[in-house]
Design goal:
Blueprint lengths: L1 H18 L5 E5 L5 E4 L8 E3 L9 H10 L1 H4 L3
Antiparallel strand pairs: 1-2, 1-3
């Protein structure tokens, strides 16, 4: 019985980790026009999501995406 409970707990932890996906956004500060990458969707008017609101699954993907965005090319 103890082995079953330990196995069930391990499976629950691994399943939860699979569903906890990270999200990254390329955002631009409206006053400085500088782009950056954040891990939460901005809720203030001074920062806007660029790139048609695209959500990236990794920081590396967001960095690559930011390099292709014209609005970020000059303000980085």
């Amino acid at each position: 019985m103890e082995k079953f409970l330990i196995s069930a707990a391990a499976i629950a932890i691994m399943t939860g980790a699979a569903y906890a996906q990270a999200e990254f956004y390329v955002v631009q500060d409206t006053s400085t026009k500088k782009c950056s990458i954040v891990d939460k969707k901005p809720t203030t008017a001074t920062t806007v999501v660029v790139g048609d609101g695209k959500v990236f699954k990794s920081r590396t993907a967001a960095e690559t995406g930011m390099k292709t965005m014209k609005v970020c090319a000059n303000g980085r």
